[in-house]
Design a protein that fits this description.
121 residues, 3-stranded antiparallel sheet, 6 helices, 3 strands, globular
Length: 121
């Protein structure tokens, strides 16, 4: 285990990676990178995410400076989300991760099947 002396920033790196690397954050960033500004319900529909989880994810991404939240005082109220400049800089690595997952889905499925069969014996 690395201690603070050997890796003084490991705790901070872990905090950042925990936020930006979680499943929903990655999917929100990919969706906003692809479509630009989206309303809450558009994101919810696109991702198939619960309202509570989307709300929590967006708040954390906004807190971390990756997402802008714009409130329009209309009836009904309109709230839009888009990537900040820092969020835009995260597009490339998160897109690479998403494309890697798409390219390897069948290989992962095969590996899981092989593993599950071996464990079942």
């Amino acid at each position: 285990m690395l201690d603070d002396e050997r890796c003084p920033d490991c705790k901070r790196i872990n905090e950042v990676l925990s936020r930006v690397g979680d499943r929903w954050s990655v999917l929100v960033v990919i969706s906003l990178a692809e479509y630009g500004t989206l309303r809450f319900n558009e994101l919810k529909r696109n991702l198939g995410i619960s309202q509570r989880m989307l709300s929590l994810t967006l708040k954390e991404l906004e807190r971390d400076g990756l997402v802008n939240r714009t409130y329009h005082p209309t009836i009904p109220p309109k709230v839009e989300y888009n990537l900040t400049e820092m969020g835009q800089s995260f597009r490339k690595p998160v897109s690479a991760l998403g494309y890697w997952a798409l390219e390897n889905l069948s290989r992962i499925d095969d590996a899981r099947e092989t593993y599950d069969e071996a464990v079942a014996k």
